[in-house]
Amino acid sequence: MKNKIAGLSLLLLFVAIGFVASMALGIVHIDFSTVVRSFIAFDGSREQLIIRTVRLPRALVAVAVGCCLALAGGIMQALSRNPLAGPEILGINYGAALAAVVASFLFGYTTLGLFAWSSFVGAGLAGAAVFLLGSLGRERLSSMKLVLAGATINLLLASLTQGILILNQQTLDTMRFWLAGSLTGRDVGLFMQVVPYMLIGLFLTLVMSKSINLLSLGDEAAQGLGQRIGWIKACLIGLIMLLAGSAVAIAGPIGFIGLAVPHIARFLAGADYRWILPYSAVLGALLLLLADIGARFVLPGQEIPVGVVTAFFGAPFLIYLAQRKGKTL
């Protein structure tokens, strides 16, 4: 217990260091004293304006999005009992992307607010469609049916999204950066609109951590311990929609955080989801902060979307997991 608390405290310290580094590092280098003065003695200088209006919102979004995606991934892996599962398996990313593309195509203009709310609605509808499809038939909703329904909806939504983008070049040009997953240009106002949903999802996830623990043992074992399997699964799918949907709404579809982070948390905290989930939340925030800092230095003089960085490091991790899983079959 003490070791886990100490480990979590150390990770929180790393998040704090990464948060400060995110405000100081970039194309315009800003020293630590200027970062501190921008909050205690703001003078309106160029560097302090960059910190207050650009880098602070960006760091806040990175922490919140990383936390939500990692928690959604942890829930998804417990729900499906599949180590390769992530929020993408419920069609959350492509549901959000399709809704944002359709909104941009229909209304003819693009704003972060339009992307955020349309994608949030799209993520919710996609998750609901997967749940309904997986519930069809005489048998109750199982992990296998959930995965198959998610894969089916995911392919459908991806095809529709690509089809609309091909038909409309203007929509493709305006949405290309958002679809890659980016933290650039997010302001505090937009963040404050979405953050209540994130906090509700975080709180409910921690409250349900005991039920998630039991469900990870398997449907039969959880039912034998008196758990209402159908109700718990419905609640967990709702939490995944809330967490991943709000994250995608504000930052676009960022991949691999939800897949990789729960495995790292499981390695550090053991098999108890009452510890895996808090560790995942903190690790997700830390890794997305680091990925966003790295995105500023990959190409000289310009930044790349953070989703490209997470995909670059996440792909080898996915290959490793797939090989490891194959050896255990």
From TrEMBL:
Pfam family, one: FecCD
Keyword Cell membrane: yes
Keyword Transit peptide attributed: no
Subcellular location field: Cell membrane
UniProt keyword terms in alphabetical order: Cell membrane, Membrane, Transmembrane, Transmembrane helix, Transport
Membrane-spanning parts: 59-79, 91-109, 115-134, 146-168, 188-207, 250-269, 276-298, 304-322
Topology in the lipid bilayer: Multi-pass membrane protein
Family statement drawn from the similarity comment of this UniProt entry: Belongs to the binding-protein-dependent transport system permease family. FecCD subfamily.
Record's protein name: FecCD family ABC transporter permease
